[in-house]
Design brief:
By secondary structure, the protein is α+β, with helices and mostly antiparallel strands. It contains eleven helices and 21 strands. Strands 7-16-15-10-12 form a five-stranded mixed sheet. The chain is flat, with a radius of gyration of 35 Å.
């Protein structure tokens, strides 16, 4: 993160030229019906006490849309004037310190000025033959006071959150300390780059830099590991052993490897796939169980990564670009678990369908074996050599005859069964049609089409 030294006293300096207090509330004159435009339409007014916005839009016959359009354009001009005024002062200060001016900061100032515009007043309007004109203004001194107050409130709240974070650090609650730091940064999100200064523990600090550095220090001292770091698992099954995630912190040198409780963690496959509980939280011992109920990829080596879930830690923060960038810049520790998948050897079985058994086998066997072998499945003929059974249940039936074209339909299911007889997964299709010159050929087509669809479903779900 760039350290853009924009001192909190920036605002008094920026508005040093605004020493004139705005006058009392002025009565807004009623629009004149004179066909001649008022003076401010032809001669742009100059008033050092106000930001001024004057705009015009073409009149839309039979519609009043030109009125809000002109208003928005005039207020956008006021916001632009505020942006230019702040940036001109800021840029000169940065150049004095031989630092680069940040265009990102310029964009954020512009966005802030547009969103935070309040206290403006309508001075006058005028409607000509073709255009509608509007004149708005905003008291510079009023705007300065509003911003100073908002910065004061944001700074005080951020400082309170940092005090809460220090209290949590003293109790070794580093997850909660991180949360308070991120909330403090979020609270000053609209003013990142303004160089807010405050006093913390007797020292004047640049607030955004202090929060960012301390947040990084806490995150950098976190350590995550899997216990064990390598495990075995079965396809369409879970892990064969218990696996835990452990989080400790070395932030306090007097208490090395202190367990971190209530730390939200995010788990994900970076190689392979399965039914994994992705959001977990450490217990009082800094540990959490890894919950993997099913490994759906047949890859022989798979990897799961776990790291602190920074979004869960932060909670609901403002969607300021500077806050999003800060969260994304935090260096987070990560642990990886290697999973070795047991060999996948299948035996093929078919549900008994009487006289259709041979036809179903002949149509289906080649499709299933060739398609799944490409995915890493192994097929064996001896049951004592296989650890999975792939069972096809295909049930063809005749349909109708239309102009000598026979139709047939097939319901089919593929069952994945463990060598202990437990069904692990199944895929089904219904009423898959086939057509040919005879019912027997039509049934073969229906079985073939059904098996093709089953293979596609397996591909979509497992691969």
């Amino acid at each position: 993160m760039k350290n853009v030294k924009l001192i909190f006293s920036l605002f008094p300096a920026i508005f040093i030229s605004l020493l004139y207090s705005c006058g009392g509330a002025r009565e807004v004159p009623a629009p004149e019906q004179d066909t001649q435009p008022p003076y401010w339409v032809q001669h742009y007014p100059i008033d050092r006490q106000y930001f001024i916005g004057i705009a015009s839009t073409p009149i839309i016959p039979g519609s009043a849309q030109h009125i809000p359009q002109a208003r928005d354009a005039a207020l956008a001009e006021i916001a632009s004037s505020i942006t230019v005024h702040i940036i001109s002062e800021t840029e000169s200060r940065i150049r004095e310190q031989d630092q680069l001016f940040s265009h990102t900061f310029e964009e954020r100032i512009s966005s802030f000025a547009r969103q935070d515009l309040e206290g403006f007043e309508l001075v006058d309007t005028w409607e000509g033959d073709r255009h509608y004109w509007v004149y708005y203004r905003l008291c510079r001194d009023l705007y300065r006071r509003q911003i100073k107050e908002k910065i004061r409130v944001a700074t005080n709240l951020a400082r309170d959150l940092l005090r809460s974070a220090e209290s949590e650090i003293s109790k070794n609650n580093y997850g909660q300390a991180l949360r308070y730091h991120l909330q403090a940064y979020s609270n000053i999100g609209a003013f990142i780059g303004f160089g807010l200064e405050t006093n913390i523990n007797g020292q004047n600090v640049l607030l955004e830099n202090h929060i960012w550095k301390t947040t990084q220090d806490i995150a950098r001292t976190l350590n995550i590991e899997f216990l064990p770091s390598r495990a075995t698992g079965g396809f369409l099954q879970g892990l064969s052993e218990e696996v835990k995630v452990k989080v400790v912190s070395d932030y306090n040198p007097d208490i090395p490897s202190k367990p971190v409780s209530s730390m939200p963690l995010s788990a994900s496959f970076i190689r392979g796939s399965g039914q994994l509980v992705e959001n977990i939280v450490t217990d009082a011992d800094g540990s959490a169980d890894l919950s993997l109920s099913r490994i759906s990829s047949p890859m022989r080596s798979q990897t799961i990564a776990v790291k602190p879930d920074i979004k869960a830690i932060a909670g609901n923060l403002v969607e300021e670009p500077a806050v999003v960038d800060m969260i994304g810049s935090i260096s987070l520790p990560e642990a990886r678990l290697t999973i070795d998948i047991e060999a996948i050897a299948f035996c093929m079985e078919y549900t008994d369908r009487g006289r259709y058994n041979e036809m179903i086998r002949n149509v289906s066997d080649g499709i299933i074996r060739s398609s799944l072998s490409e995915k890493g499945f192994e097929f064996v003929s001896r049951k004592n050599k296989c650890n999975y059974i792939l069972k096809l249940d295909a049930n063809p039936r005749r349909g109708t005859v239309v102009q000598n074209i026979h139709t047939a339909f097939c319901n089919a299911t593929i069952h994945f069964i463990s060598d202990r007889g437990v069904e692990l997964m199944s895929f089904s299709v219904s009423n898959v049609s086939g057509a040919d010159l005879s019912f027997e050929k039509a049934k073969e087509k229906a079985v073939q089409n059904a098996v093709d669809r089953l293979i596609k479903r397996i591909d979509d779900d497992l691969f």
